[in-house]
Fold this protein.
Amino acid sequence: MQSRIVSAPASTIEADLLVVPVSSTHFSAKTSGILAPIVEALGYDLFDEAAVEGFEGKKGQSFLLRGLTQIGSRRLLLLGVGDNENLSSGALRQVGVTAARRARKFRFENVALALPAELPEKLSAQIAAGHLLEGFERGTYRFDRYTTPRDDAFQGVVNLQIVLPGEQVIGEASANDDVLYKSRVLSKAITLARNLVNEPPAVMTPEQMAISAATIAREHGLENRSLNHAQLVERGFNLILAVGQGSDNLPALIHLVYRSANLAAGEKPARRIALVGKGITFDTGGYSIKNNMQIMHSDMAGGAAVLGAAQALAQIAPANLEIHFIVPTAENSINGVAFKPQDIIRGYGNKTVEILNTDAEGRLVLADAIAYAQEHDVDTIVDLATLTGSAVMALGDHTAALFSSCETLAENLLAAAKNSGEDMWRMPLIERLDKTIDTPVADMKNLGPREAGAITAALFLRRWVTVPHWAHLDIAGPAYMSSTDDFYAQGATGYGVATLVDFVCTLV
Ligand code: BES
Ligand code: ZN
Ligand code: ZN
């Protein structure tokens, strides 16, 4: 798909479908903005026409005009975005997704997306255009590697135009700059993460995850310091090894490093951070076997988000940073030597864990990865994991649970999530629950009471943290959708990539 920005009166845009976001504020005031030349060309009151069909510019509403000859586009689709004051990046991405779905349904090859008539102060035209593109790219995503192509299959949108009203120019950018660069990079990274997650478990093994990471490193100039199984054994990553012990697919620890090009060799960056993602390529539960393992190939979605962020950040290339991308990856499976309840294991961080439940494996591999990250002089660690069903019970399937002992870090992550249109809610690290993972036979056990499971999982991770700034994102809900809704398609969502990239880009 080709995408470009065009600055022209909307009435002259030639496309199969022209999509215009309309806020309720503008609709009720009949502020035409980008629609003005269209209203003029149509020769009747478009607003009245839409109002008759119940369109008011509210979120989720749409109004379609077909068979148009008065303007360059055959069809005009108005999409409601709600109150203009609160126009968010999420609403603009939603416009992109909806437009892409309509285009697919009706097999339109040429689509145009207009910017809303007026943007709130915090949104520049450049950023808004980027959100429209990101939404559209998200909406066109398909995981079709394994479906036999049909001869009459829709080949997808060929041309996407993002329309700025009249002579408007985008920020400071000159005509030759690709003002959509960041959005293109981000969209590709989200697609990468979704692909990694959607692959079946027989394909996306820990070894394959490490190969995918190596490819990202090679193609985008990141240093690859990943450790293979033998190196994990040699260095005592016993928790990762325990989780992977019951599978022929051997575990690994993926480690990619980004260092800003402006830093001289040995120069200290302004910030050194680690992004850590759970990479369980399939979670059977182990001997504490799951009775429903339907979507457990997605248990590496945290790792996939970290690899997606690695690819995007390598291309966006922020200055003064060193970023460690770390993914402990293993298959939680069963054989005669698989780890078992009552095993006691000394982790890489030199604390012992009594295993009470082999299905609480995510916190185990993360503990080793957090301990490893801390060897690299990082001041901040953010981990992402499809860690607990409890987080889904608490917040539902669209919202990640954020845990952090650092106010600033929590605020920055919530802000990044908001900018990225990803839902996130902060949850408390309740001190009195910490003792519930004490055990007389080891430094801690890997299971708390049934209640507040997402919190005790977070408290377990906190026991391994020594850096001043740490945050944990339980993404068990939003990482994967069991059915399609208005924004997410069934399957992997790529949740976290956009938030991580935004978070890192606003760090320094
Ligand atoms: N991978 C699961 C968590 C999960 C559940 C992810 C639903 C996505 C959707 C994790 O390893 C797990 O099994 N957690 C257990 C922990 C329990 C045994 C303490 C859970 O949440 O039931
Ligand atoms: Zn599990
Ligand atoms: Zn798991």
